[in-house]
Design a protein that fits this description.
The structure holds 2 protein chains of 2 kinds. Chain A is α/β, with parallel strands linked by helices. Helix content of chain A is 40%, strand content 12%. Chain B contains 14 helices and no strands. The longest helix of chain B is centred in the N-terminal third of the chain and has 36 residues, at 6-41. The chains are: A alpha/beta, B mainly alpha.
Chain lengths: 307, 356
Amino acid sequence: MRKTLVVLIVLAALPGCSKSTRPGSLVATPTSSFPVTLTAANGSVTISSKPSAIVSLSPTATEMLFAIGAGTQVRAVDDQSNYPPNAPKTKLSGFQPNVEAIAAYQPDLVVVSGDVPGLVTSLKKISIPVLVEPAAKTIDDSYTQIEQLGQATGHVKEAGTLVASMRGRIQTIIASVPKFATPPTYYHELDNTYFTATSKTFIGSVYGLLGMKNIADPADKKASDYPQLSAEYIIQTNPQMIFLADTKCCGQSITTVRKRPGWNQITAVRDGRVIPLDDDIASRWGPRIVDFLQTVVNALKGLKQAA
Amino acid sequence: MATITAAEQLHAIPALRARKRIGWLAAGVLCVAGAAVLGLFVGPVHLAPVDVFKKLISVLPFVRDTSHLTATQEAILMQLRLPRVVLAGLVGATLSFSGAAYQGAFRNPLADPYLLGAAAGAGLGATMVIVFTHAATASNLIPVAAFAGALVAVALAYAMGRAGGAGRTATSLVLAGIAVMSFLTAVQTYLQQRKSDTLREVYGWILGRLSTAGWHDVLLILPYITIGGAVILAHRRLLDVLALGDEEADALGVNTRRVRLIVVIAASLSTAAAVAVSGLIGFVGIIVPHIIRLIAGTSYRVILPLCFAFGAAFLILADLLGRTMIAPAELPIGVVTAFFGAPFFAIVLRNSRKMI
């Protein structure tokens, strides 16, 4: 079953080869002619020919690869890559990668989000090129990674189109943000022990695009970017909005939040502005971040109307 | 000036001891009271001490609430801080007296409440719920599963230790506990790795949950801790006899196996309840009893009551540090107990001439 699937994927990838070499492309970025040498987080990486057996151990990279039309070239993705649903999910782990298990897929390109000690070196030894695309700090980092994956897979044009469309949609969304006299305050919850993300993180910077104020920022004395807040502090700072990025991991919802001791004092809880998010979208830096932004802006519009 | 006869002297020693014991007990009660007051008055959110005091005494009958706390401040005090202090106290007391009970039952100074696998069992129970059940139902089931896991682990260790024969000594029980612990930890790690998306929640549970404590948690564990504590306290004299060694205790007519079994069950029940709501807080169960031994004597008639008091005070203060040191962010309580507990213990150990 798996073998036929692999054959199908490879077959599907073949016609793509001829398409990618198109002269006079409007995109100014380097054309997708191979071999191509890229500068990724793990240094200079050379990919000799258009990859047709990509293994992605990063859920974000998987989303990016499929969004730029390189999905047919992807042979295997890790156990966390649950989007898009047709991605060839396997038992490979991005946290505890097993080099032999990865090599068994005979990949011609491996994409990871972090260099688990020794992984890149080990794969290099067996001549498999690896691209490390680490967690983005800003949305511009996301664009850069999408463009780089475009070059690596022979989809420069599609990557360019995707970035342009993301930029355009985000601009439209930002333009639609209602005006507030003071920036609306929010608490972004990562789990039900009140771990959160400050404005210095990727997700925080995205909220920042909308002119919102993160209640966690004064709390980050350890400069960990992901502090654990005390319940007292959250109730005292009284955020206007609460975003739950722990609906999947920890089953949180407005109902569970209401039941927490003392939380019914918080404006966001009283006014029902506890917004459930998709944990996955909120923890990745892929193309779906635009959907996340739309969810947040819809909540902001509700806040404005109520005011 | 009257001369003291030998007979009078002999009579005076127990009286002196009793007075000393009452003195220590008073110190312990003061310590808990002091810690609780600090815990209630200090926090990441500033509340006026006068109002806190007025609000707290208004709980008493016939006292009117004249505090000027806003609804938010009242919720912070009564629904967050107060239950958290109470829970920290209960968990600290439980881990300490259970630790002392284990040390007495096994005549092993290194015994702690997790010796027979209670922690590993609780961890596995919690992990199984997190991994296998729907996330929405998990939070209610975790304490129950942790409790059950801890009890199963101890029962397993006990059964194994006894089946091991070899005189059915305390040592074979300890070894069985280690085997059970390693096995359960391995299963837990395996489950965690299989479902790495649940890692965050499992980790959050292991690091301790006092940060999200409410009255619900207090009520959940109170019955087990009360019963466990009462049973252990009732066995304080027998534990002193057990300290002489199994043969001597048997010669004195004490059924050592029965005493050991009852004490271990009671301590495990209490530990399981504490672990179920608080996660794994290390170190308390081992240093508090030893500090008390070093400063107040080795009789379980002294150690056990003092463990209640000083254990409670210790964990209330540790939790206070955890929630204020980097406020408004939290520091996991397990880090605080070990970071401050270990050096403090080293100082006591150094300055004491007594043997453990």
